[in-house]
């Protein structure tokens, strides 16, 4: 097998040089190509820009017959096919954008064996008619691009992808290669199960982006903090600022402009012309900052984005990773900066609880948010936490806020005990606002109504501010000492894990989230 392997690799390298003009394979491309060329199934997990395309294009050229590529987006197909034709590869696509005549022509080429690669929309591929046509052709391989679209719980779910399991039943001898840049372990399992890829070799490229420096600051006055960050570290450079709402993108962009930053808004509520114009200026001009909702970024390939800033908490680590990944594509240093407001968490929790989604979906969304929170509250290296989420082990990176800045910690044991006992003594039926009133000795109507001013914990927490207590509660939630229940009412309850803390058998050391830049200094326990 070794000699055929190396023969295949030699031919693969020839194609890499002559057709693509690249010098050498990257990462595990060579391995993937020889495995698939030899007829094996593969699941490829590789970040955007990692070089997934040649992993199926070269095997398709090396094997007899046409390589069939399933792709979910018409625009993506057209781009790929245009790029391939430009370098002399016989490629075509079949989707709903074609006229009947054009479709016939593609099918004719297909029958003649004149195509090396055919991009097809999933719903078209799985029609009985097309399956029968394929059966007469012996395809070289099936490539399933954006394979995470098969995941019901992902944000890009495409019902048509579920049908793709029939490829294996109809064509058991044709190798299949599924590719995605979404790498969390739930999605990976779902792809394997739904596409029947149990026998496939799994290739995982590193998701690390070493030139991106991850930094979190505690959100106090977000737009001021953002302005300081831009003025201190990124004056005149290109960047993207993500916000949760359309309205906010407009306001922040306008505000930044009054402070000398060339900032433009971008969101799905703007007209297509406005969006195109702002996107164009971002790509072609120097030093433009786009203030956008998550609608911005897909398919934008600007190499010198020097920072991505988040003014609001992203709803999942996948989203955070995708969005921050738009910084520093050129490999030069770039910043991923997030203003972390614990108030955002309650808002997001509430939004999930109150949405109309099915219960199972809400549970998943909540789990994703919890993972994002653990990332924000992690005491170790940010990169380790991020990569760890994708199942990748690593060492402290030396290029994130937690690695670079000595972390101030404080002994929060007594404060934690006070909060836990307030939770217990009020019967685990109240949210943090009321609990803080009890701890800080505020005589509110609700406190009086429930007789909580008579509790021994009433007023024992005057030494900490409202803000400190909120921070503490969300850290205790992230650490699993408190749980949140009650359909959006954010009722706090104590967990089993908190018992040793309450009994004084376990110390709680917490990280102070430092605020970077100017503005009021407010630190926990200080
Ligand atoms: P993905 O689909 O994973 O986002 P692409 O396949 O589009 O990534 O590749 C990203 C870029 O990297 C493309 O410009 C491609 O030409 C380039 N590329 C891929 N493999 C190599 C390689 N071995 N050497 C140099 N450039 C490469
Ligand atoms: Zn680090």
What does this structure look like?
By secondary structure, this protein is α/β, with parallel strands linked by helices. Helix content is 43%, strand content 14%. It has a seven-stranded parallel β-sheet, sandwiched between helices. Bound molecules: adenosine-5'-diphosphate (ADP) and zinc ion. Its EC number is 5.6.2.4. Its cofactor is Mg(2+); Zn(2+). It comes from Dongia sedimenti.
Write the layout of secondary structure elements.
Elements: H1 2-20, H2 29-37, E1 42-45, H3 53-62, E2 67-70, H4 74-86, E3 91-94, H5 100-112, E4 117-120, H6 122-125, H7 128-135, E5 141-144, H8 159-162, H9 166-170, E6 176-180, H10 185-194, E7 201-204, E8 212-218, H11 222-233, E9 239-242, H12 246-258, E10 263-266, H13 272-284, E11 289-292, E12 307-310, H14 317-324, E13 334-340, H15 342-354, H16 359-377, H17 382-389, H18 401-404, E14 409-411, H19 413-425, H20 432-439, H21 445-449, H22 466-478, E15 482-485, E16 491-494, H23 499-502, E17 509-511
Parallel strand pairs: 1-6, 1-7, 2-4, 2-5, 3-4, 5-6, 8-13, 9-11, 9-12, 10-11, 12-13
Antiparallel strand pairs: 14-17, 15-16
Helix pairs in contact: 1-2, 1-3, 2-3, 15-16, 16-17, 19-20
Residues 22, 25-26, 29, 46, 48-54 line the site of adenosine-5'-diphosphate.
Provide the descriptors you would attach to this structure in a database record:
single chain, 23 helices, six-stranded parallel β-sheet, hydrolase, helicase, alpha/beta, binds adenosine-5'-diphosphate, 526 residues, 17 strands, disordered C terminus, hydrolase activity, seven-stranded parallel β-sheet, DNA_helicase_ATP-dep_RecQ
